[in-house]
Amino acid sequence: MDFTQRIVRIPIAGPEPFNTLVVVRETLSSGFGPWASDGDMHRAPVEFSTSFTLSGYTPSADSNIAFKHSTSLVIFHLSLADDAHFLVAFDGLDAGFDASGRWIVKVDGALLSDGEALYTFAQISSWVLCNEPRKQTRDEDERFQTHPSDPGSPAHAFG
User: Fold this and answer.
1) Which of 50, 95, 136, 141 could join 71 in a cystine, given CB atoms 3.0 to 4.6 angstroms apart?
2) For the chain, first and last CA: distance in Å?
3) For residue 154, which phi and psi values (nearest 5 degrees)?
4) Do residues 84 and 115 make contact, with C-beta atoms less than 8 angstroms apart?
5) Are strands 118-130 and 68-80 parallel, antiparallel or unpaired?
6) Of 125, 115, 106, which Cα lies nearest the Cα of 31?
7) Rounded CA gap, 117 and 81, in Å?
């Protein structure tokens, strides 16, 4: 796997209904504002839209996208103009698909800064089990669609 790619799709054979494991790794810069810089604690929900969109997804009124995920967000850089007092925190995190099939990460953010401009960088990392339409190769068609009554089928060998 190339760890410099933001989106990596890995074909998998289940568990049902999943056929794809998607690794989403994106760096966000200054994505936590605008926030007041008055020395008070401010809390707000923050939503990050990633570049991962389900392949072949078409929205409909009854769309219910099945998925399982493990998602984390890490602050890896924070820059202030001087020796200000500050706090940057994420108290909760959730992720899922929006109505267009795009992967969205939502966090409960908290920020305190005493009058200084605050710049931050964070990285989102999600491992998402999902189902994306995939064109099977001829070998896959033959391997997975052999009928049990076919003498060449593995099921036939067991009677």
Assistant:
1) 95
2) 42
3) -60, -30
4) yes
5) antiparallel
6) 106
7) 7
Q: Which token pair is 148?
A: 């049990």
The secondary element (H helix, E strand) that includes residue 114 is none
> Among residues 25, 1, 20, which one has the least CA distance to residue 125?
25
Looking at the predicted structure, is the pLDDT value of residue 116 above 80? no
DSSP string, 86-145: EEEEEEEEEEEE-TTSEEEEEEEEEEEESS--EEEEEEEEEEEEE----PPPHHHHHHH-
Confidence of residue 127 (pLDDT cuts 50, 70, 90): very high
pTM of the predicted model as reported, rounded to 2 decimal places? 0.73
Q: Are 63 and 99 in contact (CB under 8 A)?
A: yes
The rounded mean pLDDT for the chain is 79
With cut-offs at 50, 70 and 90, classify the pLDDT of residue 153.
very low
Mean pLDDT of 60-65: 73
CA distance 79 to 29: 11
Is the bond leading into 17 cis (omega within 30 degrees of zero)? yes
